[in-house]
TrEMBL record:
Transmembrane segments: none annotated. This is GNAT family N-acetyltransferase. It comes from Micromonospora fiedleri. Residues 5-169 form the N-acetyltransferase domain. It comes from the Bacteria.
Length: 169
């Protein structure tokens, strides 16, 4: 990994670079909710990507209850991480994706640690995530950041308590 990992709120300035990384290095289903559009990165799917991210510009207290951040490494956008308020008080759910070229370099764990700091600063006590047993990259990042994992059928549920001491690197 070259350069420090930092998070920038997704806005009009970094939305197009974020879309460019998604188109070049990820599948639509990995970076956004499903939409009725032609397969691949069609014009309609690109517009849906933009609107999906723009809907969260207001952050945790807006209608979507979601704060999205561009993951920056070496001065470049390499992916996105988000936190979304859950119905339980002081709990947010995290989701993340990285472009293929940014995977396996410690960027995901560094981005999640930064998000945990932002969640704590926003008054959150618990961060949760949900993934599949096959998503080894996500499971590794969650474990490195101190998540307690619980497998339930075909899902893995993760929980990180922000008052706990983070694991050593």
């Amino acid at each position: 990994m070259t350069g420090a990992v930092r998070l920038e709120p997704v806005d009009e300035q970094n939305l197009e670079p974020l879309l460019s990384v998604a188109v070049a290095e990820a599948e639509p289903a990995d970076v956004m909710p499903p939409v009725a559009a032609p397969a691949g990165w069609s014009h309609a799917r690109r517009e849906a990507f933009r609107e999906f991210h723009r809907a969260s510009f207001g952050g945790l207290d807006a209608a979507t209850r979601t704060a999205m951040y561009a993951i920056m490494a070496g001065g470049e956008v390499v992916g996105m991480i988000r936190m979304t308020r859950r119905d339980e008080p002081d709990v947010v759910e995290v989701g993340m994706w990285l472009g293929r070229s940014a995977r396996g370099q410690g960027i995901g764990a560094a981005a999640l640690r930064e998000l945990l700091n932002l969640a704590a600063a926003a008054g959150m006590r618990v961060v949760v995530a949900d993934t599949t047993p096959e998503n080894r990259g996500a499971l590794s990042v969650l474990e490195k950041c101190g998540a307690k994992l619980r497998e339930d059928d075909d899902r893995v549920h993760a929980e990180i308590h922000l008052d706990a001491t983070p694991p050593a690197l």
